[in-house]
C-alpha cells in the first residue's frame, strides 16, 4: 500500500497557482525528500497533504484513503506534521505536558499521563522537562517536543517541514539521529521537505527535485550520493551544495 | 524545600506547580516596580475599605443631622459634612462599594464580550469578520460618554442602567484588540498543530487563542478602569447614574458644586477619592503591561 | 604596515537576574587586509563580537577590552558622533536579512545614494554614475531599472546584493558580514559570497565573515576562529580545517552530514566537556 499517493495535484493560494500537476507515490515505510529552493512549492505540497492548504484539485490519498480538502480527524491519526521553526511551533503559555496531552484529549484517548511520559522518553527528553514552559527549553529540545507531539496519536506518516534547518549543526545531528531511530523503531513513513542535500543523503531513500511548482526529477538517494542526477537543474543544486 | 524554591523550581513536577511558578514570577517582577506597588496598595485599600465599610465609617452614610450642616473638616468629621449634615468621610467610604461594583461589573461584562467577539472575528475572517467588525465600528465611532448618556436616557437613570450603559460602550475597544491579536496568532504553527491534531475552532479559540489575548486584555482593562470610574462619576454628576441618597462619588461632587466657593470640601473630598483610585488603576495597569509583555516572557 | 584591527581581551556582558553574564569572554585577534572567518553555534558570542567592533552593543550591555583599535583609532574611546563617521565610511556591516535592513519607503537608488553622500560630498551626476557602477559590481544586470525599485519589489538574493552595494559604495576598509547569506537559497548564497569575495579582494579590504557554517567559512576565508561559549577554541588557516585539533571543532565537523553519507548515525557532541548547555 502507498502511504501517500498524489495524482494530478494542483495547489493554489488565492488566485495564484503554486504547484502544478504533481504525481507522487510513496510506499509505506519509505523516507522521501522533496528538495528545491524557496518558492518551489515543496512546503505547499506538505501543507496540502496535512490539510492546511485546502485550495487544491486532483487527488491526495493518505494510507490508501482519499482525503477531503480540510483537516479531518481520521487523517490526523494517520499523518502528522513537524514544523521548521521550533520557536513558533509550541504555544508559549502551555507546558510541555499540556502540549503533548492535547492531541489525546481531542481524540478522547485515556491514560494520558503515562503516554506523555512514554513519548518524552522515546524522543530522548528527561521527565523533568514535562512541566516546563517552552521558553525554558533550547531549540533542539523544543524540536524534540514537536516531534513527540506529532507522534502522540501514533500516526504512520510524518510530514517533516525542514525539521533541522533552524538548528545548529551539532543539534541537527542529534535530531537527525532521533528521526532515523524513530523511523526504524516505529516503521514510520517520512515525507521531508528540505533544501539540504546532505541531510537527504543521511535520512532518505528517494528524493524529488522541485522547481517553480513542478517536479523536475525523481531519483534514488544512491544516484544523489554518486552525483548522478539526470536533470541539469538537479546538478546545479548539487554543485551549489558542494561549493562548486 | 521552602515555598519559594517550590515556586521557582526549574523542573516543576505538576501542571499546577508550573502555573503557580509562572504567576509567582509575574508577581515578583511586579514588586520590582515601585509605581505598580503603589497602585496595588491603592487598589488593595479600596477593596478593604469596601469590604469593611460598616466598621470603618464612623457615621451612617445617609443619616442626616441638620444641626451639623456644612461643617469644615475637623477631628469629629474628618472630611467635613454636607448640606444635610451627613459625614462626608462615611459617604466616601461607603461610596467605595458602589465604585467597586461598577468597575467589577463593567469589567466582567465588557472584557469577555469583547474578547469573544474579537477572537471569533479574527479567527474566522471573511464575512464573519466584516459583519462583527462593522458592528463594532458603529459603537467605536461614537464618543463613550455621549453613547452612555444616550443609553441611560433610554433605559432610565439608575446605577444598574449606568453599569449596563458603560459596559455596552466599553467592549468594542476590547474586541478590536482581541481581533488584532488573534490575527497575528491564528497563523502560528502551534495553532496549525492543534488543527492537525483534529481540534475544532471552539477549542482553538478558547484554549489557545484567548489565553494569549488575556494579558494584553488585563492591562487594557486595568488602564480603562480609571475611565470607567470617571464615566460613572460623570453620569452620577449629571444625575443619570446613582440616585440620591446613594453615596456615589460623582453624584456627591454634583451636589457639592453648589457650595464649591464657600464649602470647598463637599465637592473636593469625593473628587480626591476618584483621582486616587483612578491613579491606582493606572499605575497598576502600567506595571502589569511591563510584566505581562510577551516579549519579556523569555527572560522572566 | 600596522594591522587594520587589533582586539585584545574583548569582553561583552549583559545583566540578568542572576548577575552579569559574559557572552564574550576575553577574545583577542588581529586582522590585516585579509579575510577572517568567525564560526560558532548560536550563543557562542560570534555576533556580539562583530557588533562590539562597531560599538553597536546597546545598554545595558557592556563592552570592555584591553585594546580595541581600528587603524590606530581606539574604538572604545570614540563618542557616538565620531563612531558615526567611522561606521559605513570606514567599517561597514552586512546583516542577515535584507528585509529588515532596507528602508521600505525609499527606492534602492535613493538608499545607496544616501549611503554615499552621508560620508562624502559629490556632484549629483557623479553620485548617479557611482550608484550604477556599484549595482553593476554586485552583478545586477539592469542597474537603471533596479535603482528605481522599492525594496519589496526585489527578491531576497537581489535585496542582499543591494545591501552589499550600499555597504561597499563608501569604500570602507573593513567589511563585517554577519550571516550574510543564511536567509538565502543555496544557489544564491554562493553568488552573493562570490561577489563579496571579489570586491574584497579587488579593493584590498579586510573582511570578517561571521557564520555558523564551517564549510562556507572555510571556502571564503584565509583564516578561521572557532568560537564556543564566548571563547576562541581554535584558530587555524582555512585550508587546515580538516586537521583541527580541538575536540569541539572536530565534533562540529563530524556532526555535519555529507553528500555521500554512509554513516548510520551522526556523532554527537558531548557538550558537558566544554561547559556549554
UniProtKB/TrEMBL annotation, chain A:
| The organism's place on the tree of life at top rank | Bacteria
Task: Output the Gene Ontology terms for molecular function.
Answer: ATP binding; ATP hydrolysis activity
Recite the UniProt keywords alphabetically: ATP-binding, Nucleotide-binding, Transport
**A single GO BP:** transmembrane transport
Q: Where is the ABC transporter domain?
A: 4-237
PANTHER family xref list: D,D-DIPEPTIDE TRANSPORT ATP-BINDING PROTEIN DDPF-RELATED, TRANSPORT ATP-BINDING PROTEIN
Which family does the entry's similarity section mention? Belongs to the ABC transporter superfamily.
Q: What is this protein called?
A: ABC transporter
Q: Which organism is it from?
A: Devosia elaeis
TrEMBL record, chain B:
Query: Keyword tRNA-binding, does the record have it?
Result: no
Q: Which GO terms describe its cellular component?
A: plasma membrane
Give the residue spans that cross the bilayer.
Answer: 35-57, 98-124, 145-168, 218-243, 263-285
**CDD domains noted in UniProt:** TM_PBP2
Where does the record place the ABC transmembrane type-1 domain? 96-285
Q: How does it sit in the membrane?
A: Multi-pass membrane protein
SUPFAM superfamilies tied to this protein: MetI-like
Q: Which GO terms describe its biological process?
A: peptide transport; protein transport; transmembrane transport
Tell me the compartments it is located in.
Answer: Cell membrane
- Key word Oxidoreductase present: no
Keywords, A to Z, come to: Cell membrane, Membrane, Peptide transport, Protein transport, Transmembrane, Transmembrane helix, Transport
Return the similarity comment. Answer: Belongs to the binding-protein-dependent transport system permease family.
Name recorded for this polypeptide: D-ala-D-ala transporter subunit
Q: Which organism is it from?
A: Devosia elaeis
Automatic annotation (TrEMBL), chain C:
Give Gene Ontology CC terms: plasma membrane
* Places the protein is found: Cell inner membrane
Which SUPFAM superfamilies does this one have? P-loop containing nucleoside triphosphate hydrolases (SSF52540)
According to the UniProt entry, its GO molecular function terms are: ATP binding; ATP hydrolysis activity
Q: What is the lineage of its organism?
A: Bacteria, Pseudomonadati, Pseudomonadota, Alphaproteobacteria, Hyphomicrobiales
In the bilayer, the protein is annotated as: Peripheral membrane protein
Query: What's the protein here called?
Result: Peptide ABC transporter ATP-binding protein
Q: Which UniProt keywords apply?
A: ATP-binding, Cell membrane, Membrane, Nucleotide-binding, Transport
Family statement: Belongs to the ABC transporter superfamily.
Q: Which Gene3D superfamilies match?
A: P-loop containing nucleotide triphosphate hydrolases (3.40.50.300)
- Any idea where the ABC transporter domain is? 5-254
GO biological process terms, alphabetically, are:
transmembrane transport
Mind telling me which Pfam families this protein's record contains?
ABC_tran
Signal peptide residue numbers: none
Amino acid at each position: 500500500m502507498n502511504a501517500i499517493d498524489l495524482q494530478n495535484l494542483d495547489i493554489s493560494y488565492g488566485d495564484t497557482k503554486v504547484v502544478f500537476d504533481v504525481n507522487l507515490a510513496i510506499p509505506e515505510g519509505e523516507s522521501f525528500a522533496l528538495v528545491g529552493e524557496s518558492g518551489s512549492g515543496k512546503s505547499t505540497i506538505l501543507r496540502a497533504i496535512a490539510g492546511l492548504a485546502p485550495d487544491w484539485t486532483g487527488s491526495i490519498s493518505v494510507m490508501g484513503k482519499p482525503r477531503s480538502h480540510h483537516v479531518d480527524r481520521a487523517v490526523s491519526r494517520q499523518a502528522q506534521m513537524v514544523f521548521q521553526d521550533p520557536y513558533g511551533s509550541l504555544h508559549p503559555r502551555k507546558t510541555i505536558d499540556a502540549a503533548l496531552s492535547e492531541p489525546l484529549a481531542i481524540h478522547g484517548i485515556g491514560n494520558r499521563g503515562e503516554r506523555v511520559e512514554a513519548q518524552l522518553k522515546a524522543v530522548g527528553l528527561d521527565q523533568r522537562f514535562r512541566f516546563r514552559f517552552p521558553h525554558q527549553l533550547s531549540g533542539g529540545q523544543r524540536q524534540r517536543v514537536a516531534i513527540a507531539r506529532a507522534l502522540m496519536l501514533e500516526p504512520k506518516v510524518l510530514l517533516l517541514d525542514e525539521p533541522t534547518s533552524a538548528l545548529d549543526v551539532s543539534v541537527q545531528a542529534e535530531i537527525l539521529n532521533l528521526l532515523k531511530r524513530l523511523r526504524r523503531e516505529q516503521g514510520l513513513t517520512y515525507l521531508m521537505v528540505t533544501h539540504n542535500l546532505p541531510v537527504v543523503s543521511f535520512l532518505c531513500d528517494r528524493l524529488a527535485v522541485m522547481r517553480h511548482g513542478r517536479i523536475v526529477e525523481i531519483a534514488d538517494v544512491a544516484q544523489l550520493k554518486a552525483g548522478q542526477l539526470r536533470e541539469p537543474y538537479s546538478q546545479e543544486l548539487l554543485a551549489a551544495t558542494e561549493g562548486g | 524545600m521552602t515555598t519559594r524554591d517550590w515556586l521557582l523550581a526549574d523542573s516543576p513536577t505538576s501542571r499546577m506547580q508550573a502555573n503557580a511558578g509562572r504567576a509567582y514570577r509575574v508577581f515578583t517582577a511586579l514588586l520590582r516596580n515601585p509605581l505598580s506597588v503603589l497602585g496595588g496598595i491603592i487598589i488593595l485599600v479600596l477593596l478593604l475599605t469596601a469590604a469593611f465599610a460598616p466598621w470603618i465609617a464612623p457615621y451612617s452614610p445617609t443619616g442626616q443631622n441638620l444641626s451639623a450642616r456644612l461643617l469644615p473638616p475637623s477631628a469629629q468629621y474628618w472630611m467635613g459634612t454636607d448640606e444635610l449634615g451627613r459625614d462626608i468621610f462615611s459617604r466616601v467610604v461607603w461610596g467605595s462599594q458602589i465604585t467597586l461594583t461598577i468597575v467589577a461589573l463593567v469589567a466582567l461584562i465588557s472584557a469577555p464580550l469583547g474578547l469573544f467577539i474579537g477572537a471569533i472575528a479574527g479567527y474566522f475572517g471573511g464575512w464573519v469578520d466584516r459583519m462583527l467588525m462593522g458592528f463594532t465600528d458603529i459603537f467605536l465611532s461614537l464618543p463613550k460618554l455621549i453613547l452612555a448618556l444616550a443609553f441611560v436616557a433610554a433605559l432610565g437613570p439608575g446605577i444598574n442602567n449606568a453599569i449596563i450603559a458603560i459596559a455596552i460602550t466599553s467592549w468594542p475597544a476590547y474586541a478590536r484588540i482581541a481581533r488584532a491579536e488573534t490575527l497575528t496568532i491564528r497563523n502560528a504553527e502551534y495553532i496549525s498543530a492543534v488543527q492537525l491534531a483534529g481540534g475544532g475552532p471552539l477549542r482553538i479559540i478558547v484554549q489557545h487563542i484567548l489565553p494569549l489575548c488575556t494579558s494584553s486584555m488585563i492591562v487594557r482593562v486595568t488602564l480603562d478602569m480609571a475611565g470607567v470610574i470617571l464615566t460613572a462619576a460623570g453620569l452620577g454628576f449629571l444625575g443619570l447614574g446613582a440616585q440620591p441618597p446613594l453615596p456615589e462619588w460623582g453624584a456627591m461632587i454634583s451636589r457639592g458644586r453648589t457650595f464649591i466657593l464657600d464649602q470647598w470640601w463637599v465637592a473636593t473630598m469625593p473628587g480626591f477619592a476618584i483621582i486616587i483610585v483612578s491613579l491606582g488603576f493606572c499605575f497598576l495597569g502600567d506595571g502589569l503591561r511591563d510584566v505581562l509583555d510577551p516579549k519579556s516572557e523569555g527572560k522572566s | 604596515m600596522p594591522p587594520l584591527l587589533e582586539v585584545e581581551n574583548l569582553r561583552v556582558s549583559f545583566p540578568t537576574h542572576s548577575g552579569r553574564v559574559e557572552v564574550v569572554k576575553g577574545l583577542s585577534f588581529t586582522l590585516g587586509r585579509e579575510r577572517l572567518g568567525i564560526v560558532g553555534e548560536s550563543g557562542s558570542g560570534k555576533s556580539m563580537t562583530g557588533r562590539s567592533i562597531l560599538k553597536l552593543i546597546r545598554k545595558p550591555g557592556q563592552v570592555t577590552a584591553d585594546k580595541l583599535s581600528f587603524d590606530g583609532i581606539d574604538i572604545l574611546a570614540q563618542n557616538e558622533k565620531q563612531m558615526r563617521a567611522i561606521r559605513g565610511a570606514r567599517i561597514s556591516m552586512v546583516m542577515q536579512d535584507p528585509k529588515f535592513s532596507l528602508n521600505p519607503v525609499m527606492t534602492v537608488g535613493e538608499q545607496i545614494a544616501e549611503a554615499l553622500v552621508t560620508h562624502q560630498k559629490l556632484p549629483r551626476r557623479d553620485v548617479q554614475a557611482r550608484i550604477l557602477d556599484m549595482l553593476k559590481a554586485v552583478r545586477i544586470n539592469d542597474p537603471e531599472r533596479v535603482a528605481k525599485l522599492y525594496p519589496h519589489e526585489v527578491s531576497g538574493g537581489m535585496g542582499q546584493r543591494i545591501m552589499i552595494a550600499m555597504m561597499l559604495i563608501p569604500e570602507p576598509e573593513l567589511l563585517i558580514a554577519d550571516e550574510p547569506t543564511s536567509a538565502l537559497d543555496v544557489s544564491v548564497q554562493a553568488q552573493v559570497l562570490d561577489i563579496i569575495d571579489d570586491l574584497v579582494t579587488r579593493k584590498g579590504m579586510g573582511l570578517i565573515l561571521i557564520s555558523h557554517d564551517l564549510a562556507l567559512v572555510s571556502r571564503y576565508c584565509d583564516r578561521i576562529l572557532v568560537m564556543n561559549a564566548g571563547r576562541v577554541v581554535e584558530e587555524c588557516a582555512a585550508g587546515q580545517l580538516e586537521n583541527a585539533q580541538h575536540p569541539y571543532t572536530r565534533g562540529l565537523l563530524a556532526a555535519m552530514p555529507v553528500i555521500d553519507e554512509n554513516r548510520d548515525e551522526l556523532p554527537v557532541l558531548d557538550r558537558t566537556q566544554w561547559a556549554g548547555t
